[in-house]
Write a structure and sequence with these properties.
This protein has a seven-stranded parallel β-sheet, with helices on both faces. The protein has a four-stranded antiparallel β-sheet with strand order 2-3-1-4, sandwiched between helices. Strands 12-13 form a two-stranded antiparallel ribbon. Helix 1 runs antiparallel to helix 2 and helix 8 runs parallel beside helix 11. It is an alpha/beta fold. Helix content is about 30%, strand content about 15%.
């Protein structure tokens, strides 16, 4: 991540060692070992990834964060989103102006953000020292990035067979009953996905891509963004994103098979950073053309209704506990339902500890298996990363042995809370499709979800319980396992 410093430190240290060792016994052998180590570093540098200086970047968070909470009183979902977008972008332009001018004078490249009032700045330790002394800057975090691979990653393909009947994971949350008895399949709802990418040609997902439908702008502008590799159309070399989105909206493996989707790449090599996460969250709130500017070209009227976030941003990716909190608060104020997977660091207590899962503003999902037992790997609360002590996750869903789509038209079984979160995304899509009056009403939607959730019937080897396992919510399954049929039925009763 810190290519220049790491390489320089290694080379400098090893050369110093080579210079000092001849004074000690066995100096010739020691010197040869040191020089061989230097040669090894050089081989790694020139043969692993693309050689060259790929830059150091900083995530600069400003003190003055916009307050858009008042927008929740706006009933019209599109007007509400537009007001939030306008307030955020105007606030960023106003409060960042002096810092941008200073960086421009020095010829320092930067990228401004609005969902968090922040900038990504190309610079190392000296610029960090300078930025921390600016009056408008609250803190400066790193924005790590792996050096590019010498060639594109090979395509990933699945090894499983396509389903011949409803999946156990769909049946556990009663999704087939929603389709068959209530006639609700998610039509009219846009799901936003931030992940490794999406195989846009997969038969499970091809027809629901908004770029291929009459429900929005045709093509890839406003529907797809890859801020990492700038792929012009939906693609996925990792497989994770195709799998998770398939669970939410896949034709046969999804919970809401008639919902449409838009997507953004935030971690193509399973490593992200705060600015790339923001790139995608901003795009999903107010999509913009691939060659456009998020602050001036965003279209809130084209944004997603509900977001799937099967990822976390730990410290090694540059996040601290509050790195993305203003973003999720603004999304909630805009009426965007944000779902986050709890993480896979269980059964340890206090392991829901990375953005965005530990935030109060998001709906966090733990994992259960086919027997309704809590998955041992499922992260659990209470949240201590930010000192809040809040109970997390909020709810649970199937996350063990989940079959879904995989790139190349394939299928695969996967485990993880990454698989659980998309089930809840699909349920929200069903609820809002059934009753459009609920669109943007995050509080009431959450209330319905928790009121209709079923308790996990089996705890298996999921100990420790991290508190009272009989409490609702508790720190392992929240309010229980999501129930799509009961939730949609209650949503329909609100009409």
């Amino acid at each position: 991540m810190y290519k220049r410093q790491v390489l320089g430190a290694l080379l400098g240290g090893l050369l110093s060692l080579a210079a000092l060792l001849p004074r000690a016994p066995g100096r010739r052998a020691a010197a040869l070992v040191a020089l061989a180590a230097v040669a090894g570093v050089a081989v790694v540098y020139f043969l692993i990834g693309q050689p060259g200086w790929h830059g150091e970047r900083l995530y600069v968070v400003l003190k003055d964060q916009a307050d858009v909470a008042a927008a929740v009183v706006i009933d019209d979902p599109i007007e509400r989103r537009t007001v939030v977008y306008d307030l955020l972008t105007q606030h960023a332009d106003t409060t960042q102006i002096e810092l941008r001018r200073a960086l421009d004078r020095w010829g320092v490249a930067y990228r401004p953000y609005y969902l968090v009032n922040a900038l990504e700045v190309d610079g190392g330790p000296l610029w960090r020292w300078w930025l921390l002394r600016r009056p408008e800057v609250e803190r400066v975090l790193v924005s790590p990035e792996l050096r590019p691979l010498p060639a594109p990653s090979p395509a990933t393909t699945g090894t499983a067979s396509p389903p011949e009947m409803a999946l156990w994971s769909q049946q556990r949350i009663y999704a087939p009953l929603v389709w068959q008895q209530l006639g609700v399949t998610g039509a009219g709802i846009v799901v936003g996905q931030s992940d490794s990418g999406v195989d846009g040609t997969h038969p499970e997902l091809r027809d629901q891509y908004r770029g291929n439908t009459a429900g929005g702008p045709a093509g890839d502008d406003y529907n797809w963004l890859d801020p990492w590799n700038h792929a012009p159309a939906p693609s996925d070399s990792g497989g994770h994103g195709t799998h998770t989105l398939g669970t939410a909206v896949g034709r046969s493996v999804g919970v809401a098979p008639d919902a449409t989707w838009i997507a953004c790449v935030n971690l193509p090599r399973n490593l992200g950073n705060p600015p790339r996460y923001l790139d995608c969250l901003q795009f999903l709130l107010a999509p913009f053309p691939q060659a456009g500017d998020a602050l001036t070209d965003g279209r809130p009227d084209l944004g997603a209704h509900v977001l799937n976030n099967s990822w976390g941003c730990p410290p090694q990716e540059g996040c601290d506990a509050d790195a993305l909190q203003p973003a999720v608060a603004a999304l909630r104020a805009a009426g965007v339902f944000v779902v986050a997977s709890a993480g896979n660091n269980g059964p340890t207590c206090e392991s829901v500890d990375s953005p965005p899962a530990h935030y109060d503003e998001v709906f966090t999902v733990g994992a259960t298996d086919e027997a309704n037992a809590v998955a041992r790997f499922s992260s659990r609360g209470p949240v201590t990363a930010d000192g809040s002590g809040r109970t997390k996750p909020d709810i649970a869903a199937p996350g063990v042995g989940v079959l879904s789509a995989y790139p190349g038209g394939g299928y695969e079984y996967n485990d993880g809370t990454s698989m659980a979160g998309p089930h809840v995304v699909g349920v929200v899509a069903l609820m809002w499709s059934a009753n459009p009056a609920l669109i943007g009403d995050i509080d009431r939607t959450e209330q319905i979800l928790v009121e209709t959730a079923r308790e996990a019937s089996v705890w298996g080897d999921a100990a420790p319980t991290c508190g009272d396992p009989t409490a609702r919510p508790n720190n392992v399954t929240g309010y229980g396992i999501v129930d799509a049929y009961a939730a949609v039925e209650m949503a329909l009763a609100e009409q």
